[in-house]
Amino acid sequence: MAVGKFMQRASERDYSKHWAIPGTFPWIIQQPKPPITDRPIRVKDNYIRAVKGEQPYWIPCYFYESNTIWPDAIEEHPVPEKSGYDWWGVNWEMVDSINGMITKPGTRTISDFSKWKEELEWPDISQVDFEADGKKIQKDLDPDRVHIYQCTEGIFERLHEMIPFAESLMAFYEEPELLAEFFNKMADYKIETTQKVFDYYGRVDGVLYHDDWGTERAGFFSNEMFDEQLLPYEKKFLKDFVKKSGRFVELHSCGRNGQYLPEMIEMGVDYWNPQHRANDYDELFEKWNTKMSFAFDIDIPHGADEKEIRRRVRDFVDHFGGNGRILASIMTDFTDPRQTDIARDELYHYSLEYYNKLYHRNSDH
């Protein structure tokens, strides 16, 4: 079968070069980070303890204490990240106000979902130079941090990027058998591309999987529909492949999706970073934190002084630290880097003291 024009472009790209545009999201998370020193154990090891609920030494600072593996060679968005087409032929638009991408309204890669087998061109990833891209990306990874592959555009998201959203939902009712075949093949594609990351990008400790399942009011699907039509294929990729390979699974899923926590656990998710304004942190924590971990925001308001910042961080640790299954995403005024420095300092030192007492450890840090 002939390679289509978008896959042809990917096959000819020189992935030994950096393709992300400075200032865009991929570029930001691909940048090297300063080393983190003077910790009682490796930052990586402590991060994984918090993910798995294995008595961490301190509460990890989300994103800061990890390195993100964002390959240029997996073109789930246009490469570079600007208005254009990915290797599926989906047309994306850059929205400057959010510094992010959306599918261009009216985009469709197939005329009707019932015709996806005949019309959809699946990426032939054998054409792509993952080895060159992996060597390049590895150079900027800190060996002491945890390394997380950012696996964007989950199996449901990819469906509604190919056809209008309403048609995607209607496929659950009108074409359930055909939809199952689509999701199964998409899970196989995710396994195939993720295996390339495991093979060529150095040490990979976990996978951050993106698949949005709801609005800010509720999930898109009943739990019965989710269990029947999505869960088997999410589980095939995450639990049966990623978890069996020895990596952890982080979920990014926007929406008020607490109703799917039983499904998250069944599909192998170790921790979820829920959308703050759509979810009640206390409700999630009280019901589920003994069974899985969470990454919650610490909101630092504009203009907060050092005393207020440290108080908010301590309140967070006291409130959520007890099960040893929490990570903290520090949300500060980005115009004042000093706020972030203060919050990180307090998070490390106060949570270290907190866990030393909780787990009866001696402290010399």
UniProtKB/TrEMBL annotation:
GO terms for biological process: methylation; porphyrin-containing compound biosynthetic process. Keywords: Methyltransferase, Transferase. Residues 89-318 form the Uroporphyrinogen decarboxylase (URO-D) domain. It holds the Pfam family URO-D. GO terms for molecular function: methyltransferase activity; uroporphyrinogen decarboxylase activity. This is Methyltransferase. It comes from Bilifractor porci.
